[in-house]
From TrEMBL:
Membrane topology: Peripheral membrane protein
SUPFAM superfamilies for the chain: Cytochrome P450 (SSF48264)
Name of the protein described by the UniProt record: Cyp3A-like isoform 1
Compartment annotation: Endoplasmic reticulum membrane; Microsome membrane
Coiled coil: none
Length: 515
């Protein structure tokens, strides 16, 4: 039909249909890659690939089904992005350690603004290397030791808060309790602020942090970019993905600006929080170079950045990374630990005995931690079965052949941690909770990269030691005072959320008795 001699409607409809059909053919062609390369895997769901399974079954369940069925290297697609699921420990080592120059970066679905690009978790190549090497010295044992008094204060608040809850409730929701503790630790270690988030839930810092953490940044256009990666830049320009929740960016920017101004004007600053350490780090790094220390990350040239310290955007966004990367992970770990203790009274007794023998009722100390071997083994097993991050990935910067296997440019190489940690080859009766797997003798029987709760290689979790200390301190302080017991609301087995962080679906409700 002809409208005003200008528009021929049937030909428009035809053109649109042809366009859609061409896009569909494009996705079909993309979905032939693994078949052409001889990599086993499921027949991809049209257009969406494995996104459908991730949404319906969840990340961990999808991987736990795929890996036993197809083996230690599985080819799937996120939309049309090729994803290689690798649980072969030799290949893991080659890709994540030996070939890290090609696999330096994570898979970023959407690049948006300077703030996102400057997050250590998302930054790429030289920029990541600059930020990582600037932040690394803030996590040395010496610096972490200086933070222990702050963490101990948060432990006291944690015990008082639980005591307060016991009077009001039959069961206690553990992620709320340990969430408050984790938030307090981050507020003091990152910003030097003393907050008791359980006692003061309306505190401005607490409300803004919660806003930051609960706002979802996964938007529908992420899925469009996964299906049509060539739209990445257009989508990035059209939709600015928020890095932080509504309004909270301004709130935190103000805090950081104020703190940076205060600290810069006070050269004898006695603060030991991460903001101060990031401000100092440039100076410290220069000293290290003068002392002849070799750059441990080696290889990449970061000359563009080396003559400056972190700028304000980098300090802002990386202070916020403490929440993104360190909050959920660190609040769920002691919560899952409490759940397992309630389910296994014998293990709880053993932990009581060890802690009583080592510390009695005295607060934990840094030097006492290595003496508590059972705590170490128990926590390692918690992190095996409830690894906070069920998948980690790297993007291939260029075509590469590793151990005889061709991996094309832009492939997302993913380690499905939750499936790796349940591989019966390394973990007999994988669903059984058994801390004895982590005796020195048993550890020696497994390949090195069969256990990766904190990832591996140059991009391994930078907060690992802080997280372990924080979790151990929280567990010791609670176990010294309380006993975890299964209550009427405790779910066995516990349903988990489906996403990219391992969280309980309905919280963890336990009865707590005073010891
Ligand atoms: C039990 C607690 C935690 C677990 C299980 C955990 C786990 C992980 C994992 C699996 C990764 C990815 C590593 C890789 O790709 O190889 C990671 C990265 C990271 N984590 Fe953690 N994490 C925890 C706590 C923390 C804490 C407390 C902080 C900060 C204070 C933190 C900061 C980071 C950062 C900044 C990265 C990115 C590092 C980079 O790209 O260079 N994490 N974490």
């Amino acid at each position: 039909m002809d409208v005003l001699g200008l528009v021929d409607i049937p030909s428009w409809i035809f053109t649109i249909l042809l366009f859609i059909f061409t896009l569909y053919l494009y996705t079909l062609w993309k979905h032939t890659l693994w078949r052409r390369l001889g990599v086993p895997g499921p027949i991809p769901f049209p257009i969406l690939g494995s996104i459908k399974d991730l949404a319906v079954k969840g990340v961990s369940k999808t991987d736990q089904d795929l890996v036993p069925k197809y083996g230690s290297v599985v080819g799937v697609y996120n939309g049309t992005i090729p994803v290689l699921l690798v649980t072969d420990t030799d290949l893991i080592k080659e890709i994540f350690i030996k070939e890290y120059q090609t696999f330096t970066n994570r898979v970023l679905i959407l690049k948006t603004d300077d703030l996102l690009d400057s997050m250590i978790t998302a930054a790429e190549d030289d920029h990541w290397k600059f930020i990582r090497s600037t932040m690394t010295p803030t996590f040395t044992s010496g610096k972490l030791k200086n933070m222990l008094p702050m963490i101990l204060r948060c432990c006291d608040d944690l015990v008082n808060n639980i005591n307060g809850k016991l009077e009001q409730n039959d069961t206690v929701e553990m992620t709320e309790v340990f969430g408050g503790f984790t938030l307090d630790v981050i507020a003091s270690t990152a910003f030097g602020l003393q907050v008791n988030s359980q006692k003061e839930p309306d505190n401005e810092f607490v409300t803004n942090t919660k806003k930051t953490l609960t706002d979802s940044v996964v938007k529908p256009y992420f899925v469009i970019v996964m299906i049509f990666p060539f739209l990445k830049n257009l989508m990035g320009t059209l939709f600015k993905a928020p890095v932080f929740g509504e309004g909270s960016e301004d709130f935190f920017r103000n805090i950081v600006q104020q703190l940076v101004a205060e600290r810069k004007s006070n050269s004898n600053s006695h603060f030991r929080d991460f903001i101060q350490l990031m401000l100092n780090s440039h100076k410290d790094k220069t000293k290290e170079k003068e002392n002849g220390r070799i750059d441990e990350l080696g290889g990449l040239d970061f000359s563009e950045y080396k003559n400056r310290g972190m700028n304000e955007n980098e300090i802002l966004t990386n202070s916020m990374v403490f929440f993104g990367a360190g909050f959920d992970t660190t609040k769920t770990t002691p919560s899952f630990a409490a759940y397992v203790l309630a389910l296994h009274p014998d293990m709880q007794e053993r932990l009581f005995t060890e802690i009583d023998n080592e510390l009695g009722k005295s607060p934990p100390t840094y030097d006492s931690l290595p003496n508590m071997k059972y705590l170490e083994m128990f926590l390692a097993e918690v992190l095996r079965l409830y690894a906070a991050v069920p998948r980690i990935n790297r993007r291939a910067k260029s075509d590469i052949t590793v151990n005889g296997m061709f991996i094309p440019k832009d492939t997302d190489v993913t380690i499905p941690i939750s499936a790796l940690h349940r591989n019966p080859k390394y973990w007999p009766e994988p669903e059984k909770f058994d801390p004895e797997r982590f005796t020195d003798e048993n550890k020696a029987t497994r390949p090195m990269y069969s256990y990766l709760p904190f990832g591996l290689g140059p991009r391994v979790c930078i907060g690992m030691r802080l997280a372990l200390i924080e979790t151990k301190y929280a567990l010791i302080s609670t176990v010294q005072n309380f006993k975890f017991v299964v209550g009427s609301k405790t779910e066995i087995p516990m349903p988990l959320e489906k996403g990219f962080i391992t969280r309980p679906l309905n919280g963890i409700h336990l009865k707590i008795e005073k010891r």
